[in-house]
Design goal:
Helix content is about 45%, strand content about 15%. The protein is an alpha/beta fold. It has three domains: about 250 residues, 3-Layer(aba) Sandwich (Rossmann fold); about 180 residues, Phosphofructokinase domain (Rossmann fold); about 70 residues, Phosphofructokinase, domain 3 (Arc Repressor Mutant, subunit A). Strands 1-2-13-12-7-6-3-4-5 form a nine-stranded mixed sheet, sandwiched between helices. A four-stranded parallel sheet has the order 9-10-8-11, with helices on both faces. Helix 4 runs parallel beside helix 21. It is globular. Bound molecules: 1,6-di-O-phosphono-beta-D-fructofuranose (FBP). The site of 1,6-di-O-phosphono-beta-D-fructofuranose has 15 residues, from loops.
Length: about 550
């Protein structure tokens, strides 16, 4: 592979490890855990992996480790640092015993089910150290949930002598990792399952998982580009830029980018829901700020929109819930008919209130809500052009206000969607270090015989040497939620907390940012240079841990 000078220099970067993982480790078990909610239900569903203790690593003595064969899967959307998780696992198991082997299953969980894999040797690993992307083995969204899939996976795990499988994924994939761990334990399969917290969306976090990897790099990448747009905007002074940002179920990405770049308007889905806002309320809020700035001679600005906004609007949320149940309970019939027939069927069967919301939406949006679901049942919000929809609706409102003499400005718009641009960026130092540590730590959890645990590296706003390493039982993060018409055990998603420090910091400044032009231009991620430039965690993490 041809490499740039930066890539060559970056390949030599040695990620920082927590001090405790540098030598030999011993394990310290804490209190037994309980699930987030619905304890009885979760305990019944996970009799073999429920209630296990939180574990931390402490300095230990050199022991006699046998070689261990480990499998790894990358699951779901790409996130910067995935390659470093894999290199961390590789180095960790080689440290335990030089004859240990690592196998990568190709293109996500499908690789395990269909027995597609490669052995990850040191030559391959060295090619990918500190690089972005998941291309070392590819990723996929196949939902690993059926006994036949688990049994098929076990055949190849046994054939390769694999004792442990690491699943690198978001909340859905780690939920599946937990179900798999429980199943393998229940049949005494002799295969441990360990999860690693990945997603740029930042919504897989709790008191023990401080952040999901990739969030740091992705938000820094988006903030660089948002800053560039803001500078263009402030130079030409003729456009309103509507920028949609990834993050389908939570608005952490948008909030973090707002804290980094101080745009004029930022919408936070969780606030829209809490305030029970309608689409028209949101449009009026934006139009008011546009009109106020115009009255002061500023016909320009930037608006940040979280990709999942539409799902947070309470009326639309109710509509989606009914749609999900309707589709799930008629799946067989649905699979046989075309898109137009599906829409007609939906219109005929929705409750009156939801039918009227459905019919009021622009055709493109209602179509997306009705038809497309990913394998985990999620609406594919990345395909809904919310930024364009809002810009058009604001324009219509301003035209009306113009007729009424309430507004005299000019409103020209540009639209952007930043998501894929940041998901495979070369990991920041934070993500390079955090991911390598998560992987190395996963190897230590494997050596300690753990299963059904998520690799946990904490105290992450301190220098890496002071990070705490250990494991959290995945069942401790679970609750019961309605999915596709049924109650299911799932990891609870972390949404933006409106009483949390990051949101409060944003809320205390947003009126000033709306009125004046207070843009910050963060510039590109720096890999080499002073630590205050290169090693800073996100503002979200800094506020949360302050
Ligand atoms: P994960 O939750 O799997 O990490 O993926 C998140 C995400 O990046 C969302 O922000 C986005 O809506 C979605 O993936 C896009 O999915 P796809 O890559 O399948 O288009």
């Amino acid at each position: 592979m041809e490499k740039s000078a930066l890539q060559i220099a970056r390949a030599a970067y040695q990620p920082k490890l927590p001090e405790v993982l540098k030598g030999f480790v011993a394990i310290k078990e804490g209190e037994k855990t309980q699930s987030e909610a619905n304890q009885e239900d979760i305990e019944k569903l996970f009799p073999n992996t429920y209630g296990m203790p939180i574990v931390n690593f402490v300095k230990g003595e050199k022991g006699d480790s046998a070689p261990v064969n480990v499998g790894v899967i990358l699951s779901g959307g790409q996130a910067p640092g995935g390659h470093n998780v894999i290199s961390g696992i590789f180095d960790g198991i080689k440290k335990l015993h030089p004859e240990s082997r690592l196998y990568g299953f190709l293109m996500g969980p499908d690789g395990l089910i269909k027995h597609n894999y490669i052995e990850l040797t040191s030559d391959i690993i060295d090619e990918y150290r500190n690089t972005g992307g998941f291309d070392i083995i590819g990723s996929g969204r196949t939902k690993l949930e059926k006994k036949e899939q688990f049994d098929s996976g076990l055949v190849i795990l046994k054939e390769l002598g694999i004792k442990a499988l690491v699943i690198i994924g978001g909340d859905d994939s780690n939920t599946n990792a937990c179900v798999l761990a429980e199943y393998y334990k229940s049949i005494d399969a002799g295969v441990q399952v360990i999860g690693c917290p990945k997603t740029i969306d930042g919504d897989l976090k709790n008191s023990m998982i401080e952040t999901s990897f990739g969030f740091d790099t992705a938000t820094k990448t988006y903030s660089e580009v948002i800053g560039n747009i803001e500078r263009d905007c402030n130079s030409a002074r003729k456009y309103w830029h509507f920028i949609k940002l990834m993050g389908r179920s939570a608005s952490h990405v948008t909030l973090e980018c707002a804290l980094q770049t101080q745009p004029n308007i930022t919408l936070i889905g969780e606030e829209v829901e809490a305030k029970n806002q309608t689409l028209d309320d949101i449009v009026t809020y934006i139009a008011d700020i546009v009109a106020n700035r115009a009255a002061r001679g500023m016909n320009f600005g930037t608006v940040l929109v979280p990709e999942g906004l539409i799902e947070f609007i309470p009326a639309i949320k109710k509509l989606i819930a009914e749609l999900n149940d309707l589709i799930a309970s008629n799946q067989a019939e649905f699979d046989k008919i075309g898109a137009d027939e599906k829409i007609a069927y939906i219109k005929a069967h929705l409750s009156e209130a939801n039918a009227s919301i459905f019919n009021s939406l622009p055709a493109g949006v209602s179509r997306q809500l009705a038809l497309e679901r990913d394998p985990h049942g999620n609406v594919q919000v990345s395909l809904i052009e919310t930024e364009q929809l809002l810009a058009e609706m604001v324009s219509t409102k301003l035209a009306q206000w113009k007729k009424e003499g309430k507004y005299t400005g000019k409103f020209s718009t540009q639209h952007h969607f930043f998501g894929y641009e940041g998901r495979c960026a070369a990991p920041s130092n934070f993500d390079a270090d955090y991911c390598y540590s998560l992987g190395y730590n996963a190897a230590m959890l494997i050596a300690s015989g753990k299963t059904g645990y998520m690799s946990s590296v904490r105290n992450t706003t301190a220098p890496a040497s002071e990070w705490i390493a250990g494991g959290i039982p995945i069942t401790a993060m679970m609750n019961m939620e309605r999915r596709n018409g049924e109650m299911k055990p799932v990891i609870r998603k972390a949404l933006v907390k409106l009483d949390g420090a990051p949101f409060k910091a944003f809320a205390s400044h947003r009126d000033e940012w709306a009125k004046e032009t207070c843009y910050v231009y963060p510039g590109p991620i720096q890999y080499f240079g002073p630590t205050e430039v290169c090693d800073q965690p996100t503002k979200t993490l800094s506020y949360e841990q302050a």
